[in-house]
Every structure is written in structure tokens, then in C-alpha cells.
Amino acid sequence: MSVSLPHQLIHVIDQLERLPGIGPKSAQRIAFYLLRQDKERLNKISDGITNLAEGINHCSECGMLTEDSVCSICSDKQREKDSLCVVEGALDVISIERTGDYRGLYHVIGGLLSPLDNIGPESLNISSLLSRIEKNKPKEIILALNPSTEGETTSLYLKNLLEKEEITLSRLAHGLPTGAAIEYADDLTISRALSGRQELKR
């Protein structure tokens, strides 16, 4: 016997299923959990989601998410200015920061090169990266991109762009298996990958 659910509930379940990592059963559990909450709690959740994009900016220096024009990392005078870690997205910054092993700066390129998805260099924050390198002259660039096909392609592209610069190019080493995403790696794995990073030969 099939059960007919209210239209509003079906709509919420359908929208939740569209979120990454949320399957049909998880979407149903979340929807029924929300249904059990009082109106005040639901309004807070709703307002938070509705206002999510308001007041959140991309750091004018590195591209990290921030409420100000410059993020807390870039404005921190205690950070090591001669090291720049290139990452795909904000979640990677959070994952690396959680280890406490890196005290340099970051640059979020906002994705990875993927010709099949029509994502080329112009779609990423690569030109701002080059401008930043030219302006600040860091001594080391760490390519902390996921070891996927797209990540390897992007790392190679950046390596070729920077090969004439007098900068040490390195990348995360052991600890991150092929196909793994940095944001899902545990702290120890990321820490080992950072400490064992390898210089890219040019």
C-alpha cells in the first residue's frame, strides 16, 4: 500500500535530495526531523538558509569566504607571508587549518580545470593568483589540490605557468590516496601530506 504524503513535505524531501551526500532515505529523515521541530526553530533554520548569501563575501586577497573584505587569515600579521598554499575551495582551507601545521597564506582558485564540464582557466581565480605572486613574491607555492584527474590537470597547468618564476613549487605528498578529496581526509593524513610535500621539478 502506497502512502500519500503532503505536497509540502514531498517538496522539502525533493529539495534535500538535491544536496550533495544526501540520498532519498537521508532526505526523508531530515524532513521528518524538521517536521517535529517547533515553529520558532523552523523559522531560525529557514532564515539562516534564506540569508546565507547575504553578508558573505569572497576575500579580496585569497578568495576565502569572509564577512569582511579581507579574511581573518590574510589580515593576520602572524601568518608567514612567504608561503602560499593553492587550494580548490574554502573547505580545503578549513581542513588544512584544522591540523595547525601550516602558518602561511592561501589562495582559493574556486574549482578545478575540467574541459568536459567547460571549466577552463578563465573560470577559475588563476589570473588573481598570478597577480598576487607578482605583487608579493612568495618563496614557496604549495599546490594542495585533490589527487583526482582534474586536480592533476590543474596542478600541471599551474606548474607550467609558474616554471619561469624563481619560486619553490611543491605539492602535497604521501597520505592522500588517488581520487581522495582533501575535505574528507582526517587531520593526521593532511598533516602528513603537508609535512611530506615534494618540490615540483622544472
Describe the structure in your own words.
The chain folds into two domains: 7-50, Orthogonal Bundle (Helicase, Ruva Protein, domain 3); 57-199, Dna Topoisomerase Vi A Subunit, Chain: A, domain 2. The protein is elongated. It has 202 residues and is an alpha/beta fold. It has helices spanning 7-17, 24-35, 39-50, 90-99, 126-136, 149-162, 187-195, and strands at 57-58, 65-66, 80-87, 104-108, 140-143, 168-171, 198-199. Strands 4-3-5-6-7 form a five-stranded mixed sheet. The mean pLDDT is 89.
What class would the helix/strand composition place it in?
alpha/beta
Nearest-integer average pLDDT: 89
Question: Widest sheet: strand order?
Answer: 4-3-5-6-7
Which residue ranges are poorly predicted, with pLDDT under 50 across at least 5 consecutive positions? none
CATH class of the largest domain: Alpha Beta
* N-to-C CA distance: 66 Å
Largest sheet: 5 strands, mixed
Percent strand: 5-15%
Shape: elongated
Helix/strand order, N-terminal first = HHHEEEHEHEHEHE
DSSP strand tally? 7
Q: Output the CATH topology of the largest domain.
A: Dna Topoisomerase Vi A Subunit, Chain: A, domain 2
Count of separate DSSP helical elements: 7
Residue share in helices? 25-40%
Looking at the overall shape, the CATH architecture of the largest domain is 3-Layer(aba) Sandwich
Number of domains: 2
Rg, Cα atoms, Å: 20 Å
